[in-house]
TrEMBL record:
Keywords: Transferase. GO terms for cellular component: cytosol. PANTHER family: L-AMINOADIPATE-SEMIALDEHYDE DEHYDROGENASE-PHOSPHOPANTETHEINYL TRANSFERASE, PHOSPHOPANTETHEINE TRANSFERASE. Pfam families: AASDHPPT_N (PF22624), ACPS (PF01648). GO terms for molecular function: holo-[acyl-carrier-protein] synthase activity; magnesium ion binding. This is 4'-phosphopantetheinyl transferase. The lineage of its organism: Bacteria, Pseudomonadati, Pseudomonadota, Betaproteobacteria, Burkholderiales. It comes from the Bacteria. Belongs to the P-Pant transferase superfamily. Gsp/Sfp/HetI/AcpT family. Residues 118-194 form the 4'-phosphopantetheinyl transferase domain. GO terms for biological process: lysine biosynthetic process via aminoadipic acid. Residues 35-112 form the 4'-phosphopantetheinyl transferase N-terminal domain. It comes from Caballeronia humi.
Length: 221
């Protein structure tokens, strides 16, 4: 059984959005019964990772996603019709009935679902020795970079991660990759309007930053 924890959402989050945390079990094996629902393509993708930890993160979150969708659709987990769009974002094949998004980092994964709107989610393990300036040019607007630089040194990395997860959740809700210009919009300390996408930070275990994003517009049926 995959460990799933329901994550309480902030009050501003719509009632149709739900979120689960997956706690990765790194002692598992890809041939364990818990992964029986994975497709052949999903197994091949998991086996392509060079590090077993990365393989297990992907496989465990994907198996948990299949279980959650199966419950909502009333089908077996292995029969959930998953597909990916041109940007690699997973979706239900030939259906807009449920939108979902996943993310994983370190010991945890997140799965967001909604029957009414687009959702995006991101979680990142905060690396204390990470130099945020090495990616500032592609990740931060000039306004954000100046704002982060004005913080005390010990607070700068945390601020960077909070900005990063917010931007990635927005872009994932929109269905575009991070190469589409994280540096061209601002989310901190003020926020640009980004095509009707709202966000909220998430409470996570110590050492992690996370954010959920959702669209105001309803899904097509």
């Amino acid at each position: 059984m995959i460990p799933l924890v329901v994550v309480p959402l902030p009050p501003e989050c719509p009632a149709d959005v739900s979120l689960w945390r997956v706690d990765i079990v790194f002692g598992a094996r890809l041939d364990d019964p818990v992964f029986a629902s994975l497709s052949g393509n999903e197994r091949a993708r998991a086996q392509a990772f060079h590090r077993s930890m990365d393989a297990l993160r992907f496989a465990m979150v994907r198996a948990a996603l299949r279980a959650l969708l199966a419950e909502r659709l009333g089908v077996a987990a292995e029969d959930v019709p998953l597909a990916s769009d041109e940007a690699g974002r997973p979706s239900l094949a030939n259906s807009h009935a449920i939108d979902f998004n996943v993310s994983h980092s370190g010991d945890h994964g997140l799965i967001a679902l909604s029957s009414r709107r687009r959702v995006g989610v991101d979680i990142e393990e905060r690396a204390t020795q990470f130099d945020w300036r090495t990616v500032a040019e592609i990740a931060l607007s000039s306004h954000e970079r100046h704002a982060v630089e004005r913080l005390a040194v010990h607070a700068q990395t945390d601020a960077f991660y909070d900005i990063w997860v917010t931007k990635e959740a927005i872009l994932k809700a929109l269905g575009v990759g991070i190469t589409k210009g994280m540096q061209h919009f601002t989310v901190w300390p003020r926020r640009d309007d980004v095509q009707g996408i709202a966000t909220a930070p998430l409470s996570m275990p110590p050492g992690y930053a996370a954010c959920i994003a959702w669209s105001a517009a309803a899904l097509r049926t």
